[in-house]
Amino acid sequence: MFSHTQLLNRRNALHERAQSRRTGLEDSFHLQQFFRDSDELKSWINEKMKTATDEAYKDPSNLQGKVQKHQAFEAELSANQSRIDALQKSGQELLDGQHYASDEVAGRMEEVGSQWKKLQEATDLK
Predict the structure, then answer these.
(1) What pLDDT, on the 0 to 100 scale, is given for residue 66?
(2) Residue 5: CB partners within 8 Å, gap ≥ 6?
(3) Is 102 exposed, middle or buried (CB count within 10 Å of its CB: 0-12, 13-18, 19+)?
(4) pLDDT digits (tens, 9 = 90+) for 26-85
(5) Who's near 42: CB < 8 A, 6+ residues apart?
């Protein structure tokens, strides 16, 4: 049989392994949340880019309606700035915590930031 000390040592080792596993699972969970959020944002930005690069605004008919549409579009972009900020914040938290997938996180942050900047530039051109 095991002595009391051996049982305590085995129990402590088991707790340490369980804690290590929990930390790894939490890291994976946060990474998957970040990837989901970045994928959703990239999809949304691509959808909005189609509107921002639409050449129909050059047609001089119904200018008032087009101005209103453009103002609504700009308001939608402004309203979604917080989503971009939240993604950058969560990505930075992963990087600051030295996440095991830091390179991938940094790449996603750069990609979303670049797409967002292009969308804003395309909107400004209108």
Answers:
(1) 80
(2) none
(3) middle
(4) 999 999 999 999 999 999 999 999 988 887 666 677 778 788 888 899 999 999 999 999
(5) 111, 112, 115
**Which pair of structure tokens corresponds to residue 4?**
């009391």
Tell me the CA distances in angstroms from 64 to 70, 77, 98, one per residue in order: 10, 20, 51
CA separation for the pair 43, 112 (Å, rounded): 10
How many residues in the chain? 126
pLDDT score recorded for residue 15: 96
The Cα–Cα gap between 110 and 5 comes to 52
Check residue 37 and give its pLDDT.
97
Those residues whose C-beta lies under 8 Å from the C-beta of residue 105, and which sit 6 or more positions away, are 31, 34, 91, 94, 95, 99
DSSP symbols for 55-102: GGGGS-TTHHHHHHHHHHHHHHHHHTHHHHHHHHHHHHHHHHTT-TTH
Q: What is the pLDDT of residue 62?
A: 72
- Separation CA 13–CA 54 (nearest Å): 62
